[in-house]
């Protein structure tokens, strides 16, 4: 898959390019706008038009040339790199690019860069909490920025209709954003400016864009949206690759992490009855078989499969009492629960007709059982995602070579599981 970025500035373009290299692209920056890489090893190209401060007609000519070349290069994703403080010829460059790409092209303008203190709220671009026109770029000696409301700024510069998507929709998640984008497009908008205040908002916007397959969506941003869209676009076209998330820990922290994951991905969890696993009779087998069958059905509909004992309203089991009733120790019942989750995960992965992109396991007991039941020799450790959250691959056994992320049951903040899943997706 090829991705092309039209940048109005060299250093800014390089910043976007570095983000793409982290996704696995072989990226080159072209310093001459009328050139594309000759090497067939390059699948990501940044073309510097050096057009931020030139006259409109010059910006038009350069962007038109690059757009024509990118079409000849058979680019899958075309992006427009803009300044995070909305300096430059944004309007004319977008007009030119959309004209070249055709009537199904729609630009999504997100100057927000949360990690650098740039956010968009109510349509207004704030730089470290200050409206952009009141920041240093408002005093730019060449082209000062005099408008902080991004939709208005773009409307003044572009011939196309512009729509804004408010924060209430962004916070409602990917499906709500997708619906609002479709509504805006149906109403005639060719440029959409969503509010964005966090990196997770950017992920949600990118995910919604990837769902709108009838259109050529053009990320227009300083880099974060381009990277997120490239990941979401690839993920959408690799929908047969699944991620299995197994969580046995029932703590307030893990519950918050799971809720955050559910809110951001709109997935439907598969709940395991831990009380039925805390048995030494046939009830255990019945519950394991039930969940395996349900999981196989859900894999037809979901790319991220969450298997967990942390059901709404569930209570921590009194394993000591349950053990006494069954004539076994509480440790034995705890292992039965972990083994149940381990077997469910192993069978679902092993018998899946879809390719498995990776597993996530929370809790040492569950992870140990998964390794044991899958007959793995161990886990080849490759990276640390967050403290106490490791990335590696199964060594040997039924799941040999499959990527896995392991997390301590109480480890990580609210975003820990979501971040881990996104990490696995990026590894695709």
TrEMBL record:
Pfam families: NBD_C, SBD_N. Residues 3-228 form the Four-carbon acid sugar kinase N-terminal domain. GO terms for molecular function: ATP binding; kinase activity. It comes from the Bacteria. Keywords: ATP-binding, Carbohydrate metabolism, Kinase, Nucleotide-binding, Transferase. Gene3D superfamilies: Four-carbon acid sugar kinase, nucleotide binding domain (3.40.980.20), Putative sugar-binding, N-terminal domain (3.40.50.10840). SUPFAM superfamilies: YgbK-like. Residues 245-416 form the Four-carbon acid sugar kinase nucleotide binding domain. Belongs to the four-carbon acid sugar kinase family. This is Four-carbon acid sugar kinase family protein. It comes from Terribacillus saccharophilus. The lineage of its organism: Bacteria, Bacillati, Bacillota, Bacilli, Bacillales.
């Amino acid at each position: 898959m090829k991705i092309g970025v039209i940048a109005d500035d060299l250093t800014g373009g390089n910043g976007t390019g570095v983000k793409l290299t982290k996704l696995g692209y072989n990226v080159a920056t072209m310093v001459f706008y009328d050139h594309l890489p000759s090497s067939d090893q390059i699948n990501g190209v940044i073309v510097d038009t050096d057009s931020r401060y030139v006259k409109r007609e010059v910006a038009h000519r350069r962007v038109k040339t690059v757009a024509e070349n990118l079409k000849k290069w058979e680019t899958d994703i075309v992006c427009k790199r803009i300044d995070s403080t909305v300096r430059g010829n944004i309007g004319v460059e977008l007009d030119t690019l959309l004209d070249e790409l055709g009537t199904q092209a729609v630009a999504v303008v997100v100057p927000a860069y949360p990690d650098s203190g740039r956010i968009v709220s109510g349509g207004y671009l704030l730089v470290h909490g200050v409206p952009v026109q009141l920041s240093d770029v408002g005093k730019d000696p060449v082209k000062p920025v005099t408008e902080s409301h991004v939709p208005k700024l773009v409307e003044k510069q572009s011939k196309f209709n512009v729509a804004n998507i408010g924060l209430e929709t962004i916070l409602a998640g990917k499906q709500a954003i997708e619906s609002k984008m479709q509504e805006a497009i149906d109403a005639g908008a060719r440029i959409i400016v969503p509010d964005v205040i966090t990196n997770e908002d950017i992920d949600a916007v990118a995910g919604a864009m990837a769902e709108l397959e009838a259109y050529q969506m053009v990320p227009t941003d300083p880099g974060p949206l381009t990277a997120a869209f490239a990941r979401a676009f690839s993920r959408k076209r690799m929908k047969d690759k699944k991620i299995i998330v197994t969580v046995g820990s029932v703590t307030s922290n893990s519950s918050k992490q799971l809720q955050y994951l559910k809110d951001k991905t709109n997935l439907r969890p598969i709940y395991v009855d831990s009380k039925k696993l805390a048995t030494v009779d046939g009830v255990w087998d019945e519950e394991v078989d039930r969940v395996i069958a349900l999981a196989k059905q859900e894999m037809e509909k979901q790319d991220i499969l969450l298997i967990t004992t942390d059901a709404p309203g569930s209570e921590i089991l009194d394993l000591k009492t349950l053990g006494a009733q069954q004539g076994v120790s509480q440790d034995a019942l705890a292992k039965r629960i972990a083994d149940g989750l381990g077997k469910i995960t192993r069978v679902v992965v092993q018998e899946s007709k879809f390719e498995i992109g990776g597993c996530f396991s929370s809790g040492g007991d569950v992870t140990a059982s998964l390794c044991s039941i899958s007959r793995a020799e161990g886990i080849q450790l490759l990276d640390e995602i967050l403290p106490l959250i490791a990335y590696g691959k199964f060594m040997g056994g039924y799941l040999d070579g499959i990527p896995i992320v392991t997390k301590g049951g109480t480890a990580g903040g609210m975003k820990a599981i979501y971040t881990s899943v996104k990490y696995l997706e990026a590894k695709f």
